[in-house]
């Protein structure tokens, strides 16, 4: 039998985009399955993401688990934390753990 079901989260992103990396990191931290859709580097040619989210910037996350479509990395990070996190941001936990300099 094949496992062909699409992951519930679709992540529109661009190679080398620091905002996207922030989201990637959190998705991975939370062990969430997602499908990456790499958008066109040319802003004007990003019609797919424009259609889905109303913007041409990435990152954009579409979460079929909750019916949420979201742009803006800070909002996405907040959303992932509040939806899938356990009350503590991995970044913040890491930053606060063990560093005394
Ligand atoms: N404030 C946005 C910035 C995202 C952003 O600037 N993404 C770049 C790629 S790294 C982009 O899509 N640029 C195209 C544009 O600004 O129209 C966020 O935090 O998500």
Automatic annotation (TrEMBL):
Residues covered by the GST N-terminal domain: 7-88
InterPro entries linked: Glutathione_S-Trfase_N (IPR004045), Thioredoxin-like_sf (IPR036249)
Pfam families (alphabetical): GST_N_3 (PF13417)
Coiled coil feature spans: none
Protein name as catalogued: Glutaredoxin
Record organism: Natrinema salsiterrestre
């Amino acid at each position: 039998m094949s496992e062909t079901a699409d992951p519930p989260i679709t992540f529109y992103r661009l190679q080398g985009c620091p905002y996207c990396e922030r989201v990637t990191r959190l998705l991975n931290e939370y062990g969430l399955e997602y499908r990456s859709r790499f958008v066109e580097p040319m802003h004007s040619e990003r019609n797919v993401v424009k259609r889905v989210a109303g913007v041409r910037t990435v990152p954009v996350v579409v979460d079929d688990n909750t019916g949420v479509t979201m742009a803006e990395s800070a909002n996405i990070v907040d959303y992932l934390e509040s939806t899938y996190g356990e009350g503590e941001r991995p970044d913040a936990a890491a930053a606060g753990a063990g560093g005394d300099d």
